[in-house]
Amino acid sequence: MDTVISRLDPGDFRDRLPEALGVYVDAMGYPTQVVRSRAPAWMEHSHREGWSCVAAFDPPRRRLIGHARGPLVGICYGYRGAPGQWWYEQVSRGLRDHDHHLPEDYVELTELHVAPSHQGRGLGTMLLTEFLSDRTEPVVLLSTPEVDDEANGAWRLYRSHGFTDVLRDYRFDGDARPFAVLGRPLPLLEARE
């Protein structure tokens, strides 16, 4: 596999945003119109405290000189969770309903998507491990759509890396589908490979 995993700074992220959102729409099976509403939110996320991003790139089709990246085929980003953020408030509400609360210090793994044409090649693991490799928070949290018997690539990825249930069958405002909130302690060194 010649796919390269690279960190993106906010400028690189902005420049690659159309490709990243294309991967997101394809991986999630959303209509392309979703891009218009998600683009501003993703850009706003890139300015949050602790934001970091890694992406997977195919090799460039042509490289004349120097380092170049080909098409973006995977994206993973997140930031430090904090009160006032939409996800924080939504999950806090769900946890309060069960007499639980969010940890004070955690990283929210906001998005992790691999182009359908590149799934099943280990890119999700590569993105996840690189994203989490230098996080200083003691816990990572994420949400993922519920699926029967946890039978899809996202669930297999998260379970294989030791993510456990924080909240199940939760419905976020604006999405009728049930979601699971999963988490695990950091560092990722204890992951089950």
Descriptive key words:
193 residues
Give an overview of the whole structure.
The longest helix has 19 residues, at 10-28. α4 links the parallel β4 (107-114) and β5. 31% of the residues lie in helices and 25% in strands. The radius of gyration is 16 Å and the shape is globular. The protein contains 5 helices and 7 strands. By secondary structure, the protein is α+β, with helices and mostly antiparallel strands. It has helices spanning 10-28, 34-45, 86-96, 123-132, 153-160, and strands at 4-8, 52-57, 72-80, 107-114, 139-145, 164-170, 179-185.
Question: What portion of the residues fall into strands of 2 or more residues?
Answer: 25-35%
Order of helices and strands: EHHEEHEHEHEE
Overall mean pLDDT: 92
Which structural class best describes the helix and strand composition? alpha+beta
Portion of residues within helices = 25-40%
Main β sheet profile: 7 strands, mixed
Distance between the termini: 19 Å
Number of beta strands: 7
What are the segments in which pLDDT stays under 50 over at least 5 consecutive residues? none
Q: So how many helices?
A: 5
Shape: globular
The Cα radius of gyration reads 16 Å
